Amino acid sequence: MAEKEKKQDTFLWEGTNKQGKRVKGEMPGAGDALVKAALRRQGITPLKVKKKPKALFGGGGKKITPGEIAIFARQMATMMSSGVPLIQAFDIVGRGHENPSMEKLIMDIKSEVEGGAALGDALAKHPFYFDDLFVNLVNAGEASGALETMLDKIATYKEKSESLKGKIKKALFYPIAVVVVAFIVSAILLIFVVPQFQELFNGFGAELPAFTQMVINLSVVFQEWWWAIFGGVGGVVYVFMETKKRSRKFREILDRIALRFPVFGDIVFKAAIARFARTLATMFAAGVPMVDAMTSVAGATGNIVYEKATLAMKDEVASGQQLQFVMRETQLFPNMMIQMVAIGEESGALEDMLGKVADFYEEEVDNAVDALSSLMEPMIMAFLGVVVGGLVVAMYLPIFKMGEVV
Question: Least C-beta-crowded within 10 Å: which of 28, 39, 76, 381?
Fold first, then answer.
């Protein structure tokens, strides 16, 4: 047991196969002796085995993203549905992966499975990358003997989930990026450009327009306190992100505000509904009982308001209430979805109905994001025109007035 828990390193090896051909590669292991033994079991005579040197600055590779986990699930599903054995599928997917961190993760899981562990148990040892939903579905697939089918459902779920996240990020990124660019451009104008005009105006000997004087005063503040302004903005962003990361109560407040926010709140609402329906449909497909599924569904909604509501619904469902009734009581779910769930419960096709609800609201999110982007473009152009154009106009106002006098 102690040997199994020992931290594994990656070893570079060279050797000869049964045909006498020289081969080489990488293998994770707790020591070079164990790596040599593993190579001999594979019919390879080891000639040289050495520990792979660590990358500079401590990193073994870039961060593993949820998108890479989704691709991994799809690749494994494709391999297994094609009849490729599980261990060989790990080799094909993992060897030479463009992200060394992902390659190491896959090889670590492969080593666990080779050691006799179930795939679900091996994945559960990496909870940062494989959540309870992923592990539960894999366990259900192994228990039913339909692992490749379940991996396909996991891959579909992950792909749709990541697509939904991408749409939400797209809706947020555009306006935030514009505000940041406007702030930086304005700061550059105030610190470097406006002072040049100020020297020119000092020779006029006349009173400057109020708007121009205001911009010059703002420029003086930026020139003297630019470090405090940039530091303050950075500090506020850092404190906000850290508080959001560490305080569940703060995240709940933000989630409630997001649901009520004009235009964007509708996207957040539809995304939460789509995640709820997609996750519950996927859990039903795996044969997971509704009460057990609700915990995973709560964590997948992406909004604490819906997470708390789902956990409360779980207790009522456990007491024998129908899902449609407890959903109606929360007053958080649209009537169309409740009616679809009611039909699904009565007909015994709840999984199909939830899948259709998820498809509908995912498309709604896509359309809402496109509509928001179309709405934001003229508003952003107007915003940039007012901010940057206002600074330029302020600098030329005295020159225009001089022209009128002449």
Answer: 381
CATH class of the domain defined by 66-160: mainly alpha
pLDDT band at residue 403 using 50, 70 and 90 as cut-offs: low
Alpha carbon of 373 to those of 183, 255, 337, 370, 381: distances in Å? 21, 22, 27, 5, 12
pLDDT of residue 313: 92
Give the bridge partners for 48, in sequence order: 14
Domain boundaries, the chain: 2-53, 66-160, 163-406
15 close to 39: Cβ distance less than 8 angstroms: yes
Residues 180-237 have pLDDT tens digits of: 888 888 888 888 888 888 777 776 666 778 888 888 888 888 888 989 988 998 999 9
The per-residue pLDDT for range 88-98, each reduced to its tens digit, is 888 888 876 78
CATH code at 163-406: 1.20.81.30
CA–CA distances in Å: residue 236 to residues 57, 228, 242: 29, 12, 10
Q: Residue 200: count other Cβ atoms within 10 Å of its Cβ.
A: 12
Same fold for the domain at 66-160 and the one at 163-406? yes
**Burial class (CB within 10 angstroms; exposed 0-12, middle 13-18, buried 19+) of 109:** buried
Among 49-53, 167-171, 302-306, 330-334, which stretch is predicted with the lowest mean pLDDT?
49-53
pTM: 0.69
Q: In the predicted model, is pLDDT for residue 1 greater than 50? A: no
